[in-house]
Amino acid sequence: MSELKILVTGAAGFIGFHSARQLLERGDTVVGLDNFNDYYDVSLKEARATILENYDDFDMRRIDLADRDGMERLFKEEQFQKVVHLGAQAGVRYSIENPHSFIESNVVGTLHVLEGCRHNDVEHLVFASSSSVYGANTSMPYSTHHNVDHPLALYGATKKSNELMAHTYSHLYKLPTTGLRFFTIYGPYGRPDMSPIKFAKNIIEGRPIDVYNYGNHSRDFTYVDDIVEGVIRTMDRTATGNGQWDSSDPDPASSRAPYRIYNIGNQQPVDLMRFIELIEESIGKKAEKNLLPMQDGDVKDTWADTTDLSIDVGYRPSTPIEVGVKRFVEWYLEYYGTDLKQSS
Known about the structure:
Helices cover 42% and strands 15% of the residues. The protein has helices spanning 14-25, 42-52, 68-78, 92-97, 99-119, 154-173, 195-205, 224-236, 272-283, 307-313, 321-336, 338-343, and strands at residues 5-9, 29-34, 58-62, 82-85, 124-130, 177-182, 185-186, 209-211, 218-219, 222-223, 259-264, 270-271, 289-291.
C-alpha cells in the first residue's frame, strides 16, 4: 500500500493520538488537528502531541473545528487523501451542562470537515460516532441495524446528527463516509474525566471512588489498541453503496450512497465491579466504594454487535480485559510519577 496523506482531527485526544501514532508507524504522513481546549488537563494533550511531534512526517495544527476559515484553508493547502475525524467535544454529562459547546464542535465542526472533504476530493472520511446514540434502546447487543432515534443526552444527539449529515454528503456528493460507534475505550493516555483514571487515581490516593447505579452496570470495555486497529482497517476500506439496500425497508447501517455505520467494541461486556476489581489487583490496593444512583444521561449496559465490522474489514479485538487493565495501570503509575505510588 502506498503512503497516504491523512488528516486526523482530535490528534491530541485519546483515540486521535493513538490513531495518528499508528498511521505514522506504518509510514503515512499525518497532519493532526486539535484546539487543545481545557475540558480536561491540557498538559496530557501536550504530552500526547510531543510524542507525535517526534515523527518527521507529522505536523500539528492548532485549529478549532468551528473555525470555518481556518478549516477551509487547511483543506485547500494540504489536499488530504483521507480524513479520520475524531475531534469532538466529549462527555455525556458535560453535554447536559454545556450544550452550546457540543453544537459548535460536534455539529458545526463536523460540517466544516464534510465541506472540506467535499471541495477537496478526499477519498474517504472516517468519523467518530458513539454508543451513546443507542440511548433508550435496551435491545442487546446493540446493532447498527437498530433504530437509534431516542438519545438520552445531547452528546448522543450530536453524534446521531453527524451520521445523518455524513449520509447527506455521501448521497449528494458521492463522498465515501464511514461512521464508527465507539464503545467504552480505555488504555494508556486515556481521558482523566473517564472512570478508569478516576478509579485508579482515587484508589492510589486512598480516597473513595464513586460507583453509579450502585455498581449494577456492564460496559463493553475495549482496549485502545484494538480500537485503533479497527479505525485504520476501516479507513483503508473505502465505503461503497449497498446494492441490496431497499428504500421500502431501509437499513440504518448502509445506503445506496457510499456510506457505512459500524459498531466498534470488544463484544464482551464486563461488569463494572469486575473492572474495578482488576484495577485493584493491578494496583495492589482495595477501593473504598461510594455507591450512588444512576446519573442523568447514562445507560445501564452497553454491548456492541461488531459482526459487520468483522466481516467487512476483519476486525478482531485481541486484548483480554485482564491484560488491558494491567497495561493501563502500568502506564498510569509511570506517567503520573512516584508521588502517587508513595501514597499507596
